Every structure is written in C-alpha cells, then in structure tokens.
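In the previous chapter we treated chains in isolation. Here, by contrast, the input contains two separate entities that must be folded as one system, with a combined length of 552 residues.
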Amino acid sequence: MSLWKLEALRLWRTRRIVALAAIFIILGLGIPVLTHELPSLLKNSSGGVTIIAPPPTAATALHDFTSNASQIGTLVLVIVAAAGLALDANPALAAFYRSRTRSPLRLLLPRVIAVAVAGSICFAAGVICCWYQTDVLFGPLGVNALAAGFSLETTWIAFCVALTAFWAGLVRGVLPVAGMTIGSLLVVGFTGNIHPVARWLPTAMPASLDAFIGASHPGAPWRAVVVTVAAALCLLAIAGWRLQHRID
Amino acid sequence: MNAIGTHGLTKRYASVVALDDVGLAVPAGSLFGLVGPNGSGKTTLLETLAGLRRPTSGTVEWAGPPGGVAYCPDIAEFEPWLTAVEVLGVALALLDHPRAVQDQRAILDRVGLGDVADRHVGGFSRGMMTRLNIAAGLAGEPSVLLMDEPAAALDPAGRVEILDLIDSLTPATTVVISSHDLADVEAVCDHVGILAGGHLLYQGPLEQLIAQAARPRWRLIVRQPLGPTLDALRHAPWVTEVEAAARGQIEFSSDSPAVVEERLAALLATCDARVVSVTPVRPTFEQVFLALTAGLTTRERDVA
C-alpha cells in the first residue's frame, strides 16, 4: 500500500472528508437561499420596524458564501489537517512510523498534499453548489471569473495546511497544533486590516472569489499569491526540518 | 561477529542518566535477552538502537543494510481504521520493501492472526495488537529485530506460542528482547545483558553467567534422621551455608567445588549417613539476577 493511498484512506475511513465536504456543500447550497430570502425574513420578523437593505444580487450571495466558507470552512480544514499532520501526537503510533523511515518528509508530504487536495475538492463542490443556487435564484454568473477566484482560494487552502504542518513540527498534540494554527491565522487576519500590507498577505486570497464576481474586480492579487506560495513553502521546509530533528 | 552493538553509549535527560557508557555487543544470530529492574534503561537502549532516540554521546554500530533493524515497542498502536494486512502493507511501504499480499497474509498466519487479516485493527484486543506488532516487525525481513516486552500482554498459551515463534526466528534473524519475566528470558535466550541504573552489569552467554555468578551449591538426599548429617556439614570449614530443604533434603554451598568433591564422601561416612543422591544445584537465572542486582536500592529498582 502506498503512502498516498494511506492518506486517501485516512480521509475516507475517518470520515474527515465527509466533514469537510458537508460544511462547504451546506454553505454552498444554503447561503444563496438565505441571501435571496433575507429581505422577506427581515420584513416578516421586523415587528413593524422598516428595515431598508440593498436588494440581494448574485455577487452578494457569493460574497456571503466566501466569507462563511473562509471562516467556518477554514476552521474545519485546520482541525482535519491537524488530526493528520500531528505525527507525534500518539507516541506508540509515532514509533510505528518513525522506526520505519528516517525521513519524516516521506510521511509529511502525502499528508499535506492529501489534505490540501481534499480541501480544494470540497471547496470546489461548495462553489459548484453555490454557483447552481445563485444561477437559479439570481441569474447566470461569469464562470471564468468564478474559476479564477476559485484557484486563488485553493492557494489560501494550501497556505492553511502548510501553516498547520509548521505547527505540527513545533508542538505535538492535535489540539495544540489546531489551536496554534487558528491563533496564527487570526494574527494574519488582524495584520490584513493594516492597509499598506493587506495586499501582500495571504488574507487577500479568501476575498478574491467574490471580488472577481462583483463589480469591484481588482485583478489578480499577484503580490499576495507570491507571498502566500513562498510562505507555504518556507513553512513546509521548517516543518520537515523540525520533524527530522525532533527525536529526543 | 556482532549484529548490533553500542560503543560508550550515554543518554541523559537533564540530570537523569538513563544510559551510562553502555558497550553492548549482540552476537549475530543470537537471541539476546535484555533484563533489568524498572527504570534501568532497557527501553531507552532499544529505542536508541532503533534510531528513535538520539544518544547524548557514544555510537550505535551495526552491520547490515539500511532498514535492516526493526523495532516492536512494548505498547503497539496502529491506525484503527486499517485492516491487519493493510498495516503490514504500510510497514512495507515505509521500508521500501515490496512483498506480495499473500506473503503478508502468511506472516499474519505465522503470528496467529490469519483469520482476522481483513478486520480493522481498532477492534483488536491487546494480545492481538501484540501479535500484529510482531508481524509488522517481521514484515520487512529485518536482520535485527528489537522487541520490548514482546509477551507481556499475552495469555499463558499465547505467551508460549509467541516465545516459540521468537525462538524460531534465530539464527536467521538476530533478536533482542527486553523482558521483566526472567523465566521467559531463561527459556528462550542464549545471551543476556543485565542493565541496572543505566549500567550494563553483565553481557554474554546465559550459561556462562549462571556458571560464573552463582556460588556452587549441592542438594543432598539422605534417609532420616537428617540431624547428624546437618551437624556435620555445619561444622565443616569448607561449607559456607547449609539448610534443610524439603523432606529428607539438605542443600549446602561451598566456595570450592574441588574441596567438596574431595571431602564430602568422608564427611558423610563419619556420620553414617544413608545417602540417596548428591546432585549439583543449578541456580535459576532469577537467582543470579537478584544476586547481581542485590546492591541496588529499592528506589533504583522501582524508578520508572
């Protein structure tokens, strides 16, 4: 059995991929409906108070989907990634793996790539659901722009998984790895509010999908893409080095 | 020729010295038993040999191809969602040692898991996990197999079965086992190493250890009454210890087997003893072990 098949089995048999797919698909199916029905909901629950909201559009629906997917989806992705990447969380299991290979990179890379690919596929399923619902409820969307935005979102997913791998190289347990990763993402998120550096940070990725669809088409955030890819590679290299040298 | 060994191996954890200048030499093809009190450094030594711990100083030396050393930890865990045969598949993939699935099933058969080869290991008992642990160790056809307490979790029948299996691996594979059960070690091992407080007190052939370390002792069976014979032995200057053992039996020891051979017959004749038999008593490995580690404090024995 190859180590790639092992990781595919890990995602399938532990039902982690089901959790990932469920969250993105539920968001993809539900958010456009919620956006479409929001004016009616507000009207019926306002208790006589007049609430004026802008009319929902396809761009609004997609914006709501991406903002939810990049928060709740990222949270689930990080937990799933931490569960697979915390190589030394269970010492007895770690002994099985580590006593049979001198290079933890052989263990790390299939796990990183499997989770990143699974996250991207599940996100794609969510995007397709969202696209279908939006198309039905609001009218057609630009598929090319949607695809461009999606490819940038996968860069964000890869960065999140690499960041999880980095923390797996520094701390051992699943919860500490997930906690430190989420903490780091929050720090990156806060830093993304600082205007001069916002365009350079990975946080520019999750916002890209709805920006491509919406009227405020900003063009590809190439600086952020370069920084994100470089950061992900550096994080993976550090993770590999740390896991190699972690032996007591 | 040694299959695996260490030279000046020292392992420290802050102020605790787990291994102190250990020079282990495991002969190729031997079944080597590593014994010692709790906290003596057995697991640390095995894990260092397996590359799971980095020594503070000293070296591990072994003659064989990379990946030729397999390690079976005392507490085995595998991904619970894999089947037993898939666990072996993963072990082989990690070792880059492809083998046919039927060979993997044959290994599982050999350790008594043939019937559950396709069951998820999450439902395995501790004994079954121990067997799978050994199967995973054997899968890569290692030249050296390191096993930490291999029979600890098994019932008596399983214990005998696994010890027989371990015995059958030599001399093709050099096997090092650590165990608290000295009877197990005595039953299967031809060489032993005794660790205490991180020091290697003895290593070498088991028979030689028993012959060297134990004070010569004999069992004398005489017809009743025992009194005159006991008195005569107690007053003999060449006898160091005398005790009435079971009914009609006397056990005594002496520093010199040659003197016993020379003078015992005359002594028995003077007290008109009706001698049934005189036999040398072979000490058990447990007795030798306890004699060797007698100087250790209770704390040193029990530190985990």
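Residues 299-304 of chain B have pLDDT under 50 and may be disordered. Chain B is about 35% helix and 25% strand. Compare these points with the single-chain example from earlier in the chapter.
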